[in-house]
Design goal:
By secondary structure, the protein is α/β, with parallel strands linked by helices. Helices cover about 40% and strands about 15% of the residues.
Amino acid sequence: MALFSRSKTRHTDADTGREADIDPVIIDLVGHAHLELIPTPKAHLQFVHLPASSIVSVTASPVKDLQATLDIASELIDLGHTVIPHLAARMVEGPDHVARIASWLNDHGVRDVFVIGGDAPEPHGPYHDAAALMRALLDSNANLGRIGFGGYPDGHASIPTDALQVALMDKQQLLVDAGVKGWVSTQMCFDTKTVTRWLTECRAEGLHLPLHLGLPGVIDTTKLLTMGVKLGVGASLRYLRKNRAVVSRLAAPGGYDPMDMLAPMARQLDSLNISALHVFTFNQVANTVAWQLAVGGGATFLDNTALDRSAGVDTSAGIHMSRGVVQHGLSV
């Protein structure tokens, strides 16, 4: 695979045009980024582009059943990657289905899962939102180490902001009561100020779980804008439409750089407890991996980070499992 030959350890600010060194904290986060795959029929063609020991999240598609997610997750585990399956509550049929999922998790040594409400218009069973499925999983025999769930700094097309915040804090308390660790992974968002303001307010209200920041990888712009609607990021897309300079940068060849989102947040990443990046690759892995290598300064960058990518990840089952995935559906 052809990779960037030059280092991008310096970044040009998209607004001011000034060049500055990329903060080492950002370089580390980029090297350990969680890469998202969608379980499409051709998803396996992306496997060859994944660096060794990658952290890969596998989403749940509303046009498939959850077995498609688990099948791809199993293939990735066999290839030596750290994976985390996305479990959509509205796609789970009932207690027997929860038991089968728990059995699969135990059989594959998976102790970390990400739970979301999901995109199904009608729930397939009694679990209408992420909290309901989280309770069922916690009551099952699944040997869970961590449970992640979604955060919505950019709002949700179908759910009021107040309800989102109540659900966020309720799910955190659910994990606290169960003695299980967790994380919050955000929706894809383009506006640094929106994310920073939302997270600052959440921290003030008592959110203490680590946060995985969701951002698009280096992908085809047309695909980004068309798929963004399906992921529930309408407010961010409206932001793009109102800011033509941003749209121009996205549309120009090589114009979009995830660093435009990250660089302004450098000084607050630690204080806001942003512990990982969740990169939406839209199954265009090669482009994002090339960007990672360029940020890190060369082809040895990801090789050097592979050994410690499981930092903070539950490995007691002998298999490295990751901590982050996000998909944005009709319920939370």
